[in-house]
Design a protein that fits this description.
The structure is a single chain. This protein has 293 residues and is of the alpha/beta class. Helix 7 links the parallel strand 7 and strand 8. The longest helix is centred in the first third of the chain and has 28 residues. The strands form three sheets. Strands 3, 4, 5, 6, 9, 10 and 11 form a seven-stranded mixed β-sheet that branches. It is 42% helix and 22% strand.
């Protein structure tokens, strides 16, 4: 049996006439009769009684037709739902992004995109970099705003570059400094993200390049929380400049060429994006070219 067979059973039950049903379905009476006989043989049960004026459904046939109608209806709803998800005018975009982008870049992009595509639904996942990469691999996310540039079969569109600064409490001895060397962090308690986070890899790389073994005092997955811990006097931190000052902290520029974080949009390059996701990607590309990010 296939879905077409079930549709034909439902249609035959509705009309009660093989010839009329065949004409409605665009097939021949013998083809329809053979299909019914094949389904009956497969199920081991007679579904229709043949009468001089047409056919009537047997008790077993009523059970099969009822189930067939449910399956056909569910299949049609599924197709409609899939068509809707893939409709560039009203489908779904699955976007993952870093926690640190939750109050800046991502809301700006989504607001501007929604103005031009109000019927497209965004399914958002806010998570650390390693979870983002897992979601891209599994298909749970089609597009992701992340940093640094990921490895593997992933395309990359740089969106913005952020300067990293050392953030300190306002009473810290460094609060009035104009610049700091990364090596000076060697003797300071450091507040940063946990191992495995993309931003931690950036910080660790800067420390290694400066020949420093950082003394990590506190870890948090959220850069805004890290800034708050620094304000409470629990250490110093390297963070993107945009996070400085929310809790009264002071940012000091870092004298290191690698003290920057590039944030970009990534997606799998080994498969085509669904039309709604491709539309969002095109929108972001246009915004980037126009310098409107």
């Amino acid at each position: 049996m296939d879905l077409r067979d079930l549709e034909w059973l439902v249609a035959l039950d509705a009309t009660g006439h093989v010839t009329d049903t065949a004409a409605t379905l665009g097939t021949t009476q013998p083809t329809l009769s053979r299909t019914v006989a094949r389904v009956e043989a497969e199920l081991g049960s007679r579904l229709f009684e043949r009468l001089p004026h047409g056919v009537v459904t047997t008790p077993d046939g009523e059970l099969v037709v009822r189930a067939s109608r449910e399956l056909v209806d569910r299949w049609r709803r599924l197709r409609a739902e899939l068509d809707g998800r893939h409709d560039p005018e009203g489908g779904v975009v699955r976007l993952a992004f870093l926690d640190s982008m939750a109050t800046s870049l991502v809301p700006r992009l989504l607001r501007a995109f929604h103005e031009g595509a109000p019927r497209v639904r965004m399914v958002l996942r806010q998570e650390p970099n390693h979870d983002i990469l897992a979601d891209l691999r599994s298909g749970a996310a089609e597009l992701a705003v992340t940093s640094p540039r990921p490895e593997g079969p992933l395309a990359w569109l740089p969106l913005q570059e952020e300067r990293l600064v050392v953030v300190v409490p306002p009473t810290h001895r460094w609060a009035g400094r104009r610049r700091l060397r990364v090596a000076e962090l060697a003797d300071e308690p450091l507040v940063t993200t946990p191992v495995g986070f993309g931003f931690r890899a950036v910080v660790d790389s800067l420390l290694v390049d400066a020949g420093v073994v950082g003394h990590v005092a506190f870890e948090s997955a959220d850069l805004a929380t890290i800034e708050g811990l620094v304000a409470a006097g629990l250490g110093v931190a390297l963070v993107p400049e945009q996070f400085v000052g929310a809790s009264g902290t002071v940012g000091v520029p870092v004298d290191a060429p690698g003290a920057r974080r590039t944030v970009g949009l990534t997606w799998r390059s080994d498969r085509d994006l669904d039309p709604p996701a491709a539309r969002f990607l095109g929108f972001v590309r246009d915004r980037r070219r126009a310098g409107a990010l």
